[in-house]
Amino acid sequence: MTAVLRAQALGRRYGRRWALRECTLDIPAGHVVGLVGPNGAGKTTLLKLAGGQLTPTAGDITVLGGRPAGGPAQLAKVGFVAQDTPVYAGLSVAEHLRLGEQLNPRWDAATARERIARLGLDPAQRAGRLSGGQRAQLALTLGLAKRPELLILDEPVSSLDPLARREFLQHLMEATAERRFSVVLSSHLVHDLERVCDFLVVLVDSRVRVTGEVDDLLATHHRLTGPRRDPDRLPAGQHVISARHTDRQSTYVIRTDDPIHDPAWTVSRLSLEDLVLAYMDQRTAERRVALEVQR
C-alpha cells in the first residue's frame, strides 16, 4: 500500500531558525493520524510542506506517492483545512459551495448540499456571521466535498467550545468511516485525538519523537513505580522515556516488548495523554541535563 505521507530527513528553515529538521516519517494510508506536540514543535510547518504551501529546505517529502502540489492531479487528491478554519467572511454559504465546485474537478455537490442541510446552515448566510463552530463545519464540508484521498486538518477545533469540538469530530469520524480516506489531524488537545485517531505522531522541538498505531504504542508503554532505582539497573529491553525520582521512589515510563516480571514494580497502563506527555517530558529532561553539563 502506498504511504500517505513519507518524509526523509525533511527540514524547513526560516532564516537561521529551523522550524523542522531531520524529520523522517512513514505514515501508511487508511488511518486517522494524530499529529501532536507543543506549540512551536513544527506541526504546522510539516503540514504545509505536505500540502505544498511550503517547499523543503532539506530532505524530501512525498504525499500519496507524488510531490506535494505537483500538478492538478496531485492537488485534487489532498484537502487542507488550515488553522482557524478559514472561510471568506463576505461570501455566503452557497457561494462557498459554488466556489468549491469551480475549483475542484472531483467536487461532490450532493454531499456538500446534504451536509449544509444536515447542519442547519442557511445557504444565504454570509460566513462572517456564522459561529465559530459553524465556520469550522463549513470548512470541513468544503474539504470533504473535494473527495480527497488525504484530508489535512491543522488545529481545526482549537478555538471551539467543547460541544462544537465534539460535533466537528463526530462528523469527521462518520465521514472517514463512510469513505475510508486518510486524515492527518494536528492538535494540542490530546483528549480530542484520543477519541478519533488510530495512528500517532509526536513531534517535539522540530523532531519526530515517536510514531505508530495507537493500540501498539499503548500496549508497549508502561508506567513503573517502586523503590528508587537508577535507570542503568533496568533490563536492557526496557527503554526509558521519562523518569521521576524522590528520595525513596522512582517512577518511570518505559517502552518494551518484553513482559515485566520484577515484583518490586507496580506496573500501570498509560492513557494516550500520558504517553504524549512522557515524550514531551523526555525532551525537557534532555535540556535539563545539557544545561547542567554546560555549568
Automatic annotation (TrEMBL):
Top-level division of the source organism's lineage: Bacteria
Cited Pfam families: ABC_tran
Transmembrane segments: none
Keyword check for ATP-binding: yes
Stretches assigned to the ABC transporter domain: 5-230
Keywords noted in UniProt: ATP-binding, Nucleotide-binding, Transport
InterPro entries: AAA+_ATPase, ABC_transporter-like_ATP-bd, ABC_Transporter_VariousFunc, P-loop_NTPase
Protein name (Swiss-Prot/TrEMBL): ABC-2 type transport system ATP-binding protein
Molecular function (Gene Ontology), one example: ATP binding
